[in-house]
Write a structure and sequence with these properties.
With 279 residues, the protein is of the alpha+beta class. It has two domains: 133 residues, no CATH class; 139 residues, no CATH class. It is 38% helix and 20% strand. A six-stranded antiparallel beta sheet has the order 1-8-7-6-5-2, with no helix packed on it. Helix 2 packs antiparallel against helix 3, helix 3 crosses helix 5 and helix 3 crosses helix 8. The longest helix has 22 residues.
């Protein structure tokens, strides 16, 4: 597998084996090993050209008004900066056929030495800078897309609590919006706020927004995730269960989008990030 194919995937903990991408200049048939390490000096900050294939990522291009594949320049190849013998920084400009661009940056770590034959590597960090003509493909979730993307970026930086806070914003906002649009009371008779869980149960009872896979076994899984998303879990719990939490929240959004009357209600009554009940 070319290194470029790994760069198309989200950062992960596991190392994956890729084809050799490090070749000394003018020595293409040279096989690097720890025995001849002194023959190929490695300097911190050294710029290198990598034989790693072409990086391709999908984004929504406003010029094309469609989801497009943005590619790195195949002829120029990928360029990296040496951090140490195990880590390399890779900057990459991705371009749509219309000329719109995205600046991406990867920090890649090898299990041993990045110069080894068929090294095992993983992506430590990934960043992207979008231009005015480019949007994330997750824009299908409207104004919730920004929160979802911030959640994913926080997770990539191992900020579990921060990631969960953004998911909570979406989770509560969509629920309160549907409740508000359907005259489901948010406050008790004495004026105090009803619990979020109580409101959500009523919303789900009337509109079935929670996915079936999360509502089985007496909502046990949903209850566990709900506790984490509302701050009752540790930082380690937040990171461990982020994938399930993200799936829960986006599945609720998908269910709402499938029901036109709920979609309209959310668009009409959606609460902003300034509402104190969802911050």
């Amino acid at each position: 597998m070319d290194l470029s194919k790994l760069l198309r995937k989200p950062p992960a903990e596991d190392y994956q084996q890729v084809d050799t991408f490090w070749f000394p200049e003018e020595r293409e048939d040279y096989e690097y090993s720890d025995e001849n390490e002194d023959d190929t000096p490695l300097l911190i900050g050294q710029h290198v050209i990598l034989d790693a294939g072409q990086v391709s990522l999908n984004y929504y291009c406003t010029e094309c008004e469609d989801l497009r594949t943005f590619n790195s320049d195949k002829e120029q190849g990928l360029r990296g900066i040496v951090v140490n013998k195990q880590v390399i920084s890779i900057d990459c400009i991705l371009q749509c056929n219309c000329g719109s661009v995205v600046h991406t940056w990867f920090l890649v770590e090898a299990e041993d030495d990045i110069r080894y034959q068929s090294p095992k590597v993983r992506i430590l960090h990934f960043r992207e800078k979008l231009t005015d003509c480019v949007r994330l493909q997750s824009e299908k979730y409207g104004e919730f897309s920004e929160w979802l993307e911030k959640a994913r970026r926080a997770y990539r930086d191992e900020l579990g609590s921060g990631a969960v806070i953004y998911l909570r914003k979406v989770y509560e906002s969509i629920t309160y919006s549907i409740a508000n649009a359907n005259n489901i009371l948010l406050n008790k008779v004495n004026g105090k706020r009803r619990s979020f869980y109580e409101i959500l149960q009523e919303v789900d009872k009337e509109h079935s927004i929670i996915p079936e896979s999360f509502s089985a076994n007496g909502y046990k899984l949903f209850s566990q995730l709900s506790e984490i998303i509302h701050g009752d879990g540790s930082e380690e719990d937040a990171l461990e269960y982020f994938g399930a939490l993200y799936t829960l929240v986006t599945s609720i959004l998908d269910n709402v989008n499938k029901k036109e009357e709920l979609k309209i209600a959310v668009q009409k009554f959606n609460w902003s990030t300034n509402n104190p009940s969802i911050n």
